[in-house]
Amino acid sequence: KNEVEQSPQNLTAQEGEFITINCSYSVGISALHWLQQHPGGGIVSLFMLSSGKKKHGRLIATINIQEKHSSLHITASHPRDSAVYICAVRSRNGGSQGNLIFGKGTKLSVKP
Amino acid sequence: DSGVTQTPKHLITATGQRVTLRCSPRSGDLSVYWYQQSLDQGLQFLIQYYNGEERAKGNILERFSAQQFPDLHSELNLSSLELGDSALYFCASSGNNYNEQFFGPGTRLTVL
Q: Fewest C-beta atoms under 10 Å: which of A1, A3, A30, A48?
């Protein structure tokens, strides 16, 4: 079983829809990251959070440390949001402290 | 633009060869991370350097090595290349273990 699981793997939405991507993890963490990977391959860091909720424009990220779960929401989705969204956790244990463990990603396609 | 630069953007080489990938972190960032993204494995952490010293090792093969120089740029050396080494190699930088990581554009390595 992967230490970081994302769902769904693939998601197709119509422009304007509200989108939720989920991430569950099984290790103790010091922070969780949401990343966006564009079709060209570049990776952009969207959020880093260790508790609560963060908002940036139409994107909202939440985390529940007790339940080991995070969600990324996109409101009023747009075709330019089409990308792969990757959840990554920073383990707080041992020699890998500070380094990221990645989920497999959620491929989002928003149709006009 | 994340401020992290990587060269070259693309690299095509043959099995058995050796290549060097280069990364310049954002100005002021002391930590450099190397990641490999292959189609079947997703993103995986390879190695981290902090201010010239190796800080943590992940799933890095013995054929691979890295270093961080006094000017903080880093190089990832891949030797005895195999077909399975074909992947995107990303470098990221941060101020320390606890900060957001900023990703470079990646180097796409193709081993023929």
A: A1
